[in-house]
Structures are given as structure tokens and as C-alpha cells.
Specification:
about 500 residues; mainly beta; Immunoglobulin-like; 3 domains; six-stranded mixed β-sheet; four-stranded antiparallel β-sheet
Amino acid sequence: MKTASKYINFILIIAMLFSCSEDKITLSGTGSITGKVVSNGDNVPLEFTRVSTNPNSSIVFTDASGNFVISNVPVGSYSVEAQKDGYLSKFEPATVTADNSVNVIFELDIETANNDAPNAPVLESPINDAIDQEVTVDLVWTGSDPEDDTLTYEVQILNDQNADVLTYTDLTEVTLTVSGLDYGTKYFWQVSASDNINDPVISETFNFKTSDFPNNRNFFTRKINGNNVIYSADDDGNEYQLTLESTNSWRPRKASNINKIAFLRSNGGQTHIYTMDLDGSNVVQVTNSVAVNGFNLEELDFEWKNNNTKLVYPSFDKLYQINTNGSGLSQIHQTLNGNFITEVDWNQSTLRLAVKTNNAVGYNVEIYTMNTSGTILDYILQGVNGAAGGLDYTFDGTKLLYTYDVSGNENNEYRQLDSHMFIYDIAAMTAMDISTSKPAGTNDLDSRFSPNEAEIIFVNTSNDGVSQQDLVKLSLASLNDRIIFIENAKMPDWK
């Protein structure tokens, strides 16, 4: 029994010794893991990146240089992970040996590295090669993204007339309304889409052409933000702005045979005559050394002369003519009584001028006709109290349209109380009142014949001197037939 017991004890001791020997081999040493974390592509060090291992050891963070050290890592094989907000996590293998350091380099991709670019926008409207488009147009396209990322768009528009580029950025809708385009111009447009991750993707290029400028026959002036602005209008009353609100431009007068508009414009404290095309382009100053002037700049009028090769205009008590290119300035008349010349009209059929004069405050009115030499032929209005104006010959020159305040009122504010329109028959020397249907308390002013002389266009407004002015049409076949044509408008011309 004692011998058996000794053998059993010996075996147990040997087993314990072997067991202890295995533990020492497993825990026989440690090493370290060092490394660097940078962004992929530009190698910028990534600070505060979390670095950990699997199996677990210590968790550390990179310094400002992107470096890290994990110390006292037991010997073995590990998967090392680098994690940072905004970047894709990455794993690298590492084998740690006793008393050694293993180095691991991480190149992290940004979080969106696998994001796909947007699809190219598809242009829908106007269709490619569209014609006769309005100068205000809706550009329409579709856009999409593979990951349904939120998209923003940029639209660029070029034209075939100049190097101007219209650019609209940070658009979130797929429709853009563009206004203020030029008539008769071809435009090219394209759209780029951005998901703010990838490079923008550009659509194909479409083109469209705007319609030609309408051949309007009605012109007028409207005051906007303190400045007079000139418009044209078609027969339905659709309006087209011709001059900018930043300039003071008024009194449009069309020359039909050369498709030009002459008008007055403020320039450095003076008033001069300018011309422009029917669409408001090609503005040219005509007068220079002698400005247009008189008792009230808004009452002053001028006219085309000699088949629209010259312009005739007033400057205080003198009447001048000038070629449309600014040459040939000459004085053709001076008043006999020192009155200022305020309005003038020319008739090509009779080669006669009609002139309205008044004193420095607008009264002591005279309306008379004269020949090209400046000789007075007929007095149409003379020796009356009150204001007058609105001269316009018929085509054959046998009649003259004018306005006159039949109240005879004269005051410091130049307020008219009851202005009527009259058609004067030059041969019969009689005047017919055509304002018989004028509403009480209003004035009919600034009258012009229609091109066929079947109607009159004029301003009607309250006699308070401050209310809105409207353009009204009156049929000469029925003097009761008054139609408001354009609201908030003055100084009409109808050619």
C-alpha cells in the first residue's frame, strides 16, 4: 500500500509541474503596436482617431501628427481598427512578438468615398431648338441621384448676341423662371447637379429663340420711383418697357418710316432729345449744345420733321431744328412777345408747323401755324385765359387737335379745372368740342389722333392735379364711347 501511495503522489507532482510549465509559455511576453493614421489621397494626419484591437487590449487616440502607440500588448495576432467621424473605419492585421514593436499604417477614406455622383439633369422645356419664346420663360428639367441625396442645381444661360452669361446658383427646384430676356435672340442653357459630395454633373445644352419684338403702335410714359419710364403697348394693352427705371425718360414720338422713337431724357441737369429703336435698344443722343427747355419740362413737346430726317424742338422763346445725327442745328423761329414755346407739331402734307406758346407760368396762351420760314399764318387760339396744349395735325394738315381749359382758371400751381379736347378746322376757322362726354371734375389732356383718325387717344385725370392719369380712347363716330386703354399712363403717342 505504501509503495502504491508513493507512485500516486509522484504522478500528481509531475502533472502539476507540467501544468505550471504551460502557463509560463502562454504569458511569456508583451510587445507594442505603433502606427499612423492619415487621410487617403492627401496623407493629412488625422488627430483624435480611435484605435483599438481585437482581441481587446488598450484603446488609444492619435495625436496631432496622426501617430499612436498601444503598449503592453500580449504576444499574439490582432486585428487593429481605426475609427474617426466622417471617415470609413478600417482594419489592419498585426502580429505582436515579445519585446518588439509592430507598425501599422492606416489610410482612411472619407465617409462618402463610395457615394455615386448624381445622374445628369435632363432638360425638358423649352424643347431644344424652340422658337418664338416669350422674353419671360420657364426653364424646366428633371434630376435624380442613385442614393437619393439632396441635390442643388446651377443654371447657365448664354446668347448669340454678346458674351453675357446669366448664372443662377443654389437652386433646389427643377423649374426656373427667367425674365428680362431680349427679343429676337437665341439662348443656350444647361443645368449642373451637385450632391455636395461628388463633382457636379452637367446636362446637355439646349437652345431656344425668343420672338421678334412686336410692332407696337402705342407708346406712353409712366412714372416709377420718381423717374419717367417709356413703354410701348399692343392693341390689346399688353405693355413692353423700353427704358430703364434708373433714367428719367419721357415724351415718346415714333417715326414710322424709319422705325425709331425720339424721346426726352434728363442728362446732367439738362433735357435732351434722344432716339432709340422700337425695342429700346441703340439709344443715341441727338441734341447737345442747345438743350430742350421751357416753363415746365413735363409739358414740353417736340416733333419729327421733313420725312423724319430732322427734329424740331423748343428752347424757351426759340424754336430749333436739328438733323437726327445731331448735325445741322439751326434756329427757325422766335416768339414775337417773349412767350416760351412749349409744344410744336409738323405736317408733312402742308409743310406747316403748329406751335403753342405761353408765358413763364403757362398762361397767355397762343396757338398758331407757320411755314418753314417761321412766318405766322393762322392764329387758332389767342387772347384767352387758362391753359392749353396737346397739338396734333390730321394727316392732310387740314385740322388740328388741341386741348383747352374752358374754365379759364389760372393759378400758381398750373392746375386745370375743366380741360376739353377740340378739333380745329383750319379752312373754316371753327373748333368742335369733342369732350362732351367727359366726366365732371376731370380733365382731357395730351390728345393724339389714331393712325386712321377714327379715334383719339388722350389722358383723362381728376382735376385735383395729383390723381392717377389714365390713357383713354374715344371714337369720333360716337363721342360717348370712352374706353380706358391703359391705367396709370401719360404722354401717349399712336402711330
